[in-house]
Amino acid sequence: MNDFVKIVEVGPRDGLQNEKIPLTLEQRKDFILDLMQTGLKSIEVGSCVSAKWVPQMADSDVLFNQLPQDHNIQFSLLTPNLKGFESALAVGCKEVAVFTAASESFTRKNINCSIDESFEKFADVMAAAKANDIKVRGYVSCMVDCPYEGAIDPQQVVKVSKRLLDMGCYEVSLGETIGTATPDRIKKVWEVCLAELDSQVLAGHFHNTYGMAIANIYQSLTQGIRVFDSSIAGLGGCPYAKGASGNVATEDLYYLLSKMGFETGINLDALMQASRNISQVLTRNNPSNYAHAYWQNNCA
């Protein structure tokens, strides 16, 4: 049996929240229904935040509640505070995510507090999650570089990750937020992290600003990382990182993994249909190299 790699599809949340055109609730639902046909086992539905600040994520709890139940798929919601967690809990969400960074400056720009203050907010969420048997995933931005501080000390990445795990997160996703890293730098960060943390509790989240996401994922695979976040059609970006492009495209990640012999559980035809559909809805070009090649080879 080939090695399995879990793909966490973040397009409906991390992707859409950074697209300029907010979709209607029905369009977001159709998008997720398409994703449900692909064989993806983990889908981040949205974010329970104020629509005033992130209009693209309005009514994510309502959207979650409208999705059909599928025990083969783990749906999740980002819940930055207790109010958001309570919204997720009310609609039966069984996995939530919390979000911080390895950079003080980025944390302040992104969630308007220090790293320590972000953990104070998480404490209530973690306690409520434990009391209600809800899984919590942690995100750590700026695993390599910060748009404000430059290079980040890998020990700081370890420190923040350990705090999340100690609080009760089952997994921590390290984000290469602005897409500036190269494989040699990724290797060093993973080496420091893996000296103190098990690879089974770590995931990679790579952006493709300089075209390095797939190369960085390859490096991560060689070091034993087996969970990666991606966004179909490369949706998204980072509003607090000037010039940062979208997440690595799920299509490109699938191609890398499948050609290397890893199992993903993905149905290719369904994946490509979902990719085409959301690109058409957003009237945007799909930056995925694999998507371009696929449609060139499969269209008369």
Overview of the molecule:
The chain is an alpha/beta fold. The protein is built from twelve helices and ten strands. The strands form two sheets. An eight-stranded parallel β-barrel has the order 1-2-3-4-5-8-9-10, surrounded by seven helices. A two-stranded antiparallel ribbon has the order 6-7. Helix 8 links the parallel strand 8 and strand 9.
Low-confidence parts lasting 5 or more residues at pLDDT below 50?
none
Q: Structural class, from secondary structure content?
A: alpha/beta
Per DSSP, the total helix count is: 12
Q: Using only CA atoms, what is the Rg?
A: 18 Å
What's the helix-strand series?
Answer: EHHEHEHEHHEEEHEHEHEHHH
Percent of residues in β-strands:
15-25%
Chain-averaged pLDDT = 94
Strand arrangement, largest sheet? 1-2-3-4-5-8-9-10
Sketch the major β-sheet.
8 strands, parallel, barrel
- How many β-strand runs? 10
Determine the fraction of residues in helical runs and give it as a percent range.
Answer: 40-55%
Shape assignment? globular
* Head-to-tail CA distance between termini: 36 Å
Task: Lay out the secondary structure.
Elements: E1 6-9, H1 11-15, H2 25-36, E2 42-47, H3 60-66, E3 74-78, H4 82-90, E4 95-101, H5 104-111, H6 115-131, E5 135-141, E6 145-146, E7 150-151, H7 154-167, E8 171-176, H8 183-194, E9 202-206, H9 213-222, E10 227-230, H10 250-259, H11 268-281, H12 289-298
Parallel strand pairs: 1-2, 1-10, 2-3, 3-4, 4-5, 5-8, 8-9, 9-10
Antiparallel strand pairs: 6-7
